[in-house]
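Predict structure. Input: Glutamine--fructose-6-phosphate aminotransferase [isomerizing], 361 residues.
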Amino acid sequence: DMGGHDTYMHKEISEQADAVDRVLRGRIDEKFSTVHLGGLNLDAREARGIRRVKILGCGTSYHAGLIGASLIEGLARIPADSEPASEFRYRNPVVDPDTLYIAVSQSGETYDVLAAVQELKRKGARVLGVVNVVGSAIAREADGGVYVHAGPEVCVVSTKCFTNTVVAFALLALHLGRIRDLSVADGKRIIEGLRKLPAQIQEILEGEEDIKKLAAEYADAKSMMFIGRVRGYPVALEASLKLKEISYIHAEAYPASELKHGPLALIEPAMPTVAIVPSDSLLEKNRAAMEEIKARSGRILAVAHQEQEKADHTIIVPKNEDELDPILMGIPLQLLAYHTALALGRDIDKPRNLAKSVTVE
Ligand code: M6R
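Output follows.
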């Protein structure tokens, strides 16, 4: 049942404020400025012993893991990274007892992720799951974890589950941080930020008509560049994947700083750039990158917290805490991909060549 929407994708994008509300519900502990995660199976002593975090997922879940890694590193100060599960399992990785492994999956059935979990467990590692589908293979195989509570996601391309997965990682990072060195004040700051998310998401969704007009402006592109820096880079990766999957427009995502090391050669009027430009300590750096693009006559659509004069168009999103900004900045770009695909007459819920869950090797 699409509940009045024309596609599942549109329905699922529209459900995100409620979905985020669900992943937060019952988990926040105001008294100690932390969160409780029932199924984690990780006591405080074990949490303090973690030396590294390695996150594994595929596609959108891998991208959510990239933001998750930066949340864990930022809030819990544990070195963390995310890697495609398929790469990990084929490179005979060193499995380290002091590393916490986290498998991320919407379906909980993706074969590459499941195989990585099984290999890790065979080697004695501790593996948590950040999974949407309750009781799925990866959820059962993991030692514990955090359910994402996005609700059923039908569209082949993941939207609300991506957002909820990142919020689930914020909860995990806050939990680990408060067991380790995150202050009460910072815990409070993040909790307040988390509580603001549903209303801010709703505010972004209300701007859909404007985003639809922008999509019409850029739908003629043969190819698009997505750039971001540090926290903005995974947002760029995910937005470029969404555009590719449903519009079939070729898209590249690069760290803004890498432009001058090669991809700047591609910039011309026919290759517009979507720039992720949060108002944080990197704002000036991101403006400089936009200037480089303008100097090559590139068109720019910025996603930012304030109007960007270097850009041809700016989608303004509400500001949250720096750490949580990536959650919000991805949402207008889901709508951009959606309306671009719609303008091009694509089969949005069932893009060619793709399946909802990839249960084969
Ligand atoms: O169910 P999973 O999260 O494990 O699926 C992983 C990927 O196959 C999935 O995210 C894929 O990239 C989607 N089509 C993204 O929109």
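The longest strand covers residues 99-105.
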